[in-house]
């Protein structure tokens, strides 16, 4: 039903104000409370929810992964990190993130609820206060063994460059 008269003018004014609103800096998006929860837990205390499950093998500690991710604080949803097409070794990240990756098949999207003990513990880490529980949404695009990454290397490339240049599914 179309709006008429004062209601239409009010809606047009609100739309114009929103379009011209200044975005406060720094840009600190927050994630809603329902997206900071996980439905299951491992024996170590890692929480997880598979948002899009895929079938197949999962990476090991020595593998290199290619992921899209967003990391935020469980307490308030404050985003502290995100990456698209990021490559790194599974065993070179905080233990809760590593454990979660090793449960995730290629093509999956998962949420990991990482207690402080499996994260940074009592240490501050840039935007992450000490003793913070963390949440990550992670899409596993691809992974390769260290040997596969080494075989893909060209002159002057390191292992992380090699996997980030590989195409998902290869």
Question: Could you characterize what this model shows?
Answer:
The chain is α+β, with helices and mostly antiparallel strands. It has helices spanning 6-19, 95-101, 146-152, 159-165, and strands at 40-41, 47-52, 64-73, 79-89, 109-114, 134-144. It has a 6-stranded antiparallel β-sheet with strand order 1-2-5-6-3-4. Strand 1 and strand 2 form a beta hairpin. Helix 3 crosses helix 4. The longest helix has 14 residues, at 6-19. The chain is globular, with a radius of gyration of 20 Å. The termini are far apart. Mean pLDDT is 85; it is low at 162-170.
Task: Describe the protein's topology.
Layout: H1 6-19, E1 40-41, E2 47-52, E3 64-73, E4 79-89, H2 95-101, E5 109-114, E6 134-144, H3 146-152, H4 159-165
Antiparallel strand pairs: 1-2, 2-5, 3-4, 3-6, 5-6
Helix pairs in contact: 3-4
The count of helical stretches stands at 4
Percent of residues in β-strands: 25-35%
Which range best describes the helical content: under 10%, 10-25%, 25-40%, 40-55%, 55-70% or over 70%? 10-25%
Strand order of the largest sheet: 1-2-5-6-3-4
The ordered H/E elements are HEEEEHEEHH
Please state the CA-atom Rg, rounded to the nearest Å. Answer: 20 Å
In round numbers, the mean pLDDT is 85
- Class by helix and strand content? alpha+beta
- The global form is globular
Total DSSP E strands: 6
Assembly context of the chains: single chain
Parts with pLDDT < 50 across at least 5 consecutive residues? 162-170
| Main beta sheet | 6 strands, antiparallel
Cα distance spanning the termini: 52 Å
């Amino acid at each position: 039903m179309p709006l008429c008269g004062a209601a239409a003018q009010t809606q047009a004014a609100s739309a114009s104000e929103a379009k011209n609103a200044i975005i406060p800096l720094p840009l600190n998006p927050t994630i809603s409370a329902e997206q900071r929860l996980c439905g299951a837990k491992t024996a170590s205390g890692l929480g997880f929810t598979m948002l899009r499950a895929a079938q197949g093998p999962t990476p090991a500690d020595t593998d290199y992964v290619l992921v899209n991710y967003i990391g935020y604080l469980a307490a308030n949803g404050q985003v502290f990190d995100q990456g698209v097409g990021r490559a790194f070794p599974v065993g070179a990240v905080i233990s809760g993130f590593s454990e979660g990756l090793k449960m995730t098949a290629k093509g999956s999207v998962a949420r990991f609820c990482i207690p402080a003990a499996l994260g940074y513990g009592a240490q501050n880490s840039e935007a992450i206060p000490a003793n913070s529980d963390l949440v990550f949404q992670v899409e596993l695009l691809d992974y390769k063994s260290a040997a596969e990454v080494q075989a893909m290397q060209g002159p002057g490339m390191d292992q992380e460059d090699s996997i980030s240049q590989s195409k998902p599914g290869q």
